[in-house]
Amino acid sequence: MEAPMGGHGSGGLPRTAEVLASESGYAALLIDSALAKRLASNEGARLAVQRRQDQNLNLKRRSNVEALLAHVSGQEAHSPCKSCHKGYGPWNGCVVVNGQTCGSCANCWFNASGSRCSFHENNLPQHMPAIGVPQVSANTSFAGTAPMAAGMAPAGPGGFGQSGADPIAQIFKDAIDRVTADVRANDAHALFHLRIETAARQLALVSAEYAAFLAQQPGHDPSQHPHDAEGSVPEAAMGEEENDA
After folding, report:
1. Radius of gyration, CA atoms only, the chain
2. Contacts made by residues 8-17, CB under 8 angstroms, sequence distance 24+
3. Which residues does the annotated region (Disordered) include (predicted)?
4. What is the pLDDT of residues 105-154, one digit of tens each?
5. What single string gives the DSSP state of each residue in 41-96?
6. Cβ partners under 8 Å of residue 41, min gap 6
């Protein structure tokens, strides 16, 4: 069971997530990511109680520190996510911070960067009931994310109106998960590479659609557009650098 503490100490002053994390036995935390700094200043709600008291947690990793701070300051979910229900994650309880960690709970943010959590924003219909009343905090600027994602919800986990086996939808889902991990890791090189790869995939898709469009036109001669028929990127999409060379 969790150890709810409330957000105030004996003097009536609110205790932050950083303070409660320290009181839970996790001292000298390295709080250097933007998310960790936001969470650290939130009002604390509970002490963190490990499922296995003898387990040494790796709190040198940024996302793990973020998970701890989220756990001591977030809201208990109405019902645990699938992973917490199975007993995964370092702490007792399933805790969510509204608008943060891509909707995933603190335990899943620690274990797998949140991507496997059934509350993850990619699974928005499951995430929405996780907490009843939105948590009021300084992070309300992120509240605009939910309505935008809600418009995509009818597509379901398969995404984009396709079945769950749609390869294009899976590509986008994987790209989103990788971007989230790269941003959190603050790895600029990996982020740029992923952006380039995503743009290349999009160009390839548009090129293939263009080739299919041409093939349906009356009197179209595929021999006049050999590259389009192969699904390569049209010359008009190659940018201006080669033209200036």
Report:
1. 23
2. 14/43, 14/44, 15/43, 15/44, 16/40, 16/41, 16/42, 16/43, 16/44, 16/73, 17/41, 17/42, 17/43, 17/44, 17/69, 17/70, 17/72, 17/73
3. 217-245
4. 999 999 777 778 888 877 655 444 455 544 444 444 434 444 444 444 44
5. TSBP-EE--BSSTTPPP--SSHHHHHHHHHHHHSEE-SS--HHHHTT-SSBSS-EE
6. 16, 17, 18, 138
Helix 167-185, helix 188-215: angle, nearest 10:
160
Over pLDDT 70: what percentage of the chain? 59
Distance CA 103, CA 125 (A): 11
The token duo for 236 is: 């008009």
Rounded to two decimals, the pTM is: 0.49
Three-state SS letters, 124-161: HHHHHHHCCCCCCCCCHHHHHHHHHHHCCHHHCCCCCC
11-20, 23-32, 71-80, 224-233: least confidently modelled range: 224-233
Instruction: Give me the residue spans of the domains in the chain.
Output: 3-153, 187-244
Cα–Cα distance between 203 and 40 in angstroms, integer?
41
How far apart (Å, rounded) are the C-alpha atoms in residues 50 and 193? 37
Give dist(CA 159, CA 176) in Å, integer. Answer: 13
Q: Which residues contact 178 (CB under 8 A, 6 or more apart)?
A: 194
70-to-8, 109, 172, 212, 224 alpha-carbon distances in Å: 17, 9, 27, 49, 59
